[in-house]
Specification:
Helix 3 runs parallel beside helix 5 and helix 3 packs antiparallel against helix 8. The protein has one domain: 3-Layer(aba) Sandwich (Beta-lactamase). The protein is of the alpha+beta class. The relative contact order is 0.15. The chain is globular and about 60 Å long. The longest helix has 42 residues.
């Protein structure tokens, strides 16, 4: 008889005999062990199946909107994550402004935010809804931060970068919080044009989300400054159709949007469910054609899938 076949038959028989010879207490331990092993396997299989289903949903969204999608989310309570092209590079566009203001807050005291910065009409660039109204008087760093975050004012964003020592200084601050991926090199509006395979002014979903988490929920800033940054982002005026549109009613979102060439549309956010711990989310997207339009709906629908995957719908 083949020994391997013989032992395959003998093993379950031995287990039965072993259990039969055990006390009731010992039998319970054996049965519990078998149940835990089976349950663990089933749970792992369910998790894999759920992740595969979420990936398929994201792939369907890519096809539907003819776009490339990148997603990273983390439930800061359960530590569960949702990932899709999370390590692929996208133009970060104006989402960088949230991190730049975080960097400014790291370098300036609350009192120093009242410093008035002057500029001329020559400093105005392509989108200046707030700064263009204050050329004669200038604006404080606090006012520039508000304009940059809540209205995505590009001149305000550039003046903040100037305070950091330009893109190079900004990059140094990011490296200081552990972000060696985000790669700022230019200012507005040039940073919004990133051709395929270029890495300047790009980042990844996981890098942006992790840096945002460091500034808003982590220890990169003291409490008072974190609260100031979060308050500006909660009152953002440009994000109603993006991540905010994809979360259940009553949830609170603090976000920063961005848009650029190649149909780039981005949003990074901290989300507070009605119950439970905050979720950090980055949703980035782009298309193949340089002049392609972007789709807000893609960001909103991707957000809906993230919430489903994290199973926080009922919180």
């Amino acid at each position: 008889m083949n020994k391997r076949w013989f032992y395959q038959i003998l093993a379950p028989i031995g287990l039965v005999l072993m259990v039969a010879g055990c006390s009731d207490e010992e039998k319970q331990v054996v049965q519990q062990s078998e149940t835990e092993q089976t349950g663990g396997t089933n749970q792992t299989s369910e998790n894999i199946t759920a992740k595969e289903a979420t990936i398929k949903k994201f792939e369907q969204l890519e096809k539907e909107y003819d776009a490339k999608l990148g997603v990273y989310a983390i439930d800061t309570g359960t530590k569960e994550t949702v990932e899709f092209h999370e390590n692929e590079r996208f133009a970060f566009t104006s989402t960088h402004k949230a991190l730049a203001v975080g960097a400014l807050l790291q370098q300036k005291s609350i009192e120093e935010l009242n410093q008035r910065i002057t500029y001329t009409s020559e400093d105005l660039v392509n989108y200046n809804p707030i700064t263009e109204k204050h050329v004669d008087t200038g604006m404080t760093l606090k006012e520039l931060s508000d304009a940059s975050l809540r209205y995505s004012d590009n001149t305000a964003g550039n003046l903040i970068l100037e305070q950091l020592g330009g893109p190079a200084g900004f990059k140094k601050v990011l490296e200081g919080i552990g972000d060696n991926v985000t790669n700022p090199e230019r200012i507005e509006p040039d940073l919004n044009v990133v051709n395929p395979s270029e890495t300047h002014d790009t980042s990844t979903p996981i890098a942006l989300a992790t840096s945002l988490q460091a500034f808003t929920l982590g220890d990169a800033l003291p409490t008072e400054k974190r609260e100031l940054l979060i308050d500006w982002m909660k009152r953002n005026t440009t994000g109603d159709a993006l991540i905010r549109a994809g979360v259940p009613k009553g949830w609170v979102v603090a976000d920063k949007t961005g848009a650029g060439s190649y149909g780039t549309r981005n949003d990074i956010a901290i989300i507070w469910p009605s119950k439970g711990d905050p979720i950090v989310l980055a949703v980035l997207s782009s298309r193949d054609e340089k002049e392609a339009d972007y789709n807000d709906e893609l960001i909103a629908e991707a957000t809906e899938e993230v919430i489903k995957a994290l199973k926080v719908k009922g919180k």
